[in-house]
Amino acid sequence: MDHTFRRAHRLLKTDEFSSVFHLRNARSNTLFQVYARPNGLSHARLGLVVGKKTAKRANRRNYIKRTVREWFRLHRHELPAVDFVVRSRQAYHRDDYHDAIAALAALFAKLARCRDS
What we know:
Strand content: 15-25%
Largest sheet: 4 strands, mixed
Mean pLDDT: 89
Order of helices and strands: HEEEHEH
Distance between the termini: 29 Å
Shape: globular
Low-confidence stretches: none
Number of strands: 4
Strand order of the largest sheet: 1-2-4-3
Number of helices: 3
């Protein structure tokens, strides 16, 4: 199974992000807010938003983005053909990694259930 995170699996342009935000199909918890929009492709794509208000230092923002990308890379085969934008609402440390990943997985599962019904 191909577990790479290629350019085709990323949201890169402002218009792509805007179209996902405009649909307003979102779920959230204390750590993340996940927006979703069907994309008409054969695979899921990911966009990330981690602002300075969330984590002031760049290394903390990069850690959050790295962990979300890693989860997406390993689970993208299980996801529907949807554009996802993950917005971080609160910073977390390495000690909270497993809780953060569980929270992220729960949000993606909620969005998948809402899409199927």
